[in-house]
Amino acid sequence: MNVIVCIKQVPASSNVKIDPVTGVLIRDGLDSKLNPYDLYAIECALQITSATGGLVTAITMGPPAAKTALKEAISMGCNKGVLITDRLFAGADVLATSYTISSGIKQINDIDLIICGKQTTDGDTAQVGPEIAEMLHIPHVSFVNKIISVLQDSITVEYALDHTTETVRIPFPCLITVDKDIYTPRLPSYKRMLAHMNDEIIVLTLQDFTDKDESHYGLKGSPTQVEAMFSPTKNENKVILNGSISELSEKLFFQLKELKVI
Q1: What sign does the dihedral 56-145-7-139 (CA atoms) show?
Q2: Which of 97, 57, 91 is nearest to 77 (CA)?
Q3: What is the mean pLDDT of the chain?
Q4: Distance CA 221, CA 131 (A)
Q5: Which residues contact 163 (CB under 8 A, 6 or more apart)?
Q6: Which of 1, 2, 66, 150 has its CA 20 to 30 A from that of 175?
Q7: What is the pLDDT of residue 22?
Q8: How far is Cα 167 from Cα 170, in angstroms, rounded to an integer?
């Protein structure tokens, strides 16, 4: 069983800046962490391979600093890491991101199962996983919250809908996205981190892909563009009112009237 886990390094803080021209997050200098939902995907992959045997490959798209996320995945139990990185990939929307990751996955042979977290905390679209599957022309199921069984040629899972749950068997190769109820993620192992700290991270760039057309990647390959985006401004103005209940009621009324709330 060869399993790929798609992971992403996301900002560790909500205090992020936005490029006013491109409308994308400015990630340089930001503290980062492994996307929380990807922890469940990693644990799911490790649970499956511990029962069936096989290898788990963590793959991510991002700047060179994203190697940190891959090393964390390896310290949790993944066997190797693959970094998809190139300046030409910057500014990609959901479609271009999915196409880039699927192009990277095509460089890996004999894949049985691809596992993604339900969504990322910096984008929250929950679209990348299914779009990767569509671009690889393989079946997929989203919002999986339970693995029922894993056979040699298929996996049976339970997934959540708005008001019910469904059970489905999917033939390999396939892709699933998992929710946080599936397993409790293990902590990274310090001993494993030391043992694998010098492991090579496989790096893929545009030149490693079959499709080398730059117009299919990054901002050039993104059919959706952000018309306007801005960081919310903080307003710390405050008014403290003192007095009796009747005095406070009158003061509050005039305060709201002055602000044209009423």
Answers
A1: positive
A2: 57
A3: 91
A4: 15
A5: none
A6: 66
A7: 59
A8: 10
The neighbouring-strand residues paired with 158 are 146, 167
Domains of the chain listed by start with CATH number? 2-216 (3.40.50.620)
Reported residue count of the chain is: 262
Mean pLDDT (whole number) for 60-82: 96
pLDDT band with cut points at 50, 70 and 90 for residue 100? very high
CA dist., res. 245 & res. 248, Å (int): 5
More confident residue, 31 or 120: 120
Question: What's the token pair of residue 73?
Answer: 């995945």
Q: For the chain, first and last CA: distance in Å?
A: 65
CB atoms within 10 A of CB 179: 18
Question: What is the spatial distance between Cα 172 and Cα 6, in angstroms, rounded to a whole number?
Answer: 17
HSE of 45 in the Cβ direction (CA atoms, 13 Å)? Answer: 36
Name the 3-class secondary structure at 226: coil
Q: What is the pLDDT of residues 10-50, one digit of tens each?
A: 987 655 666 666 556 655 656 789 999 999 999 999 999 99
Is the Cβ–Cβ distance between 19 and 59 less than 8 Å?
Answer: no
pLDDT surpassing 80 at residue 199: yes
**25: closest CA among 135, 130, 127, 120?**
120
d(CA 50, CA 167): 23
For 222, the token pair is 């993104």
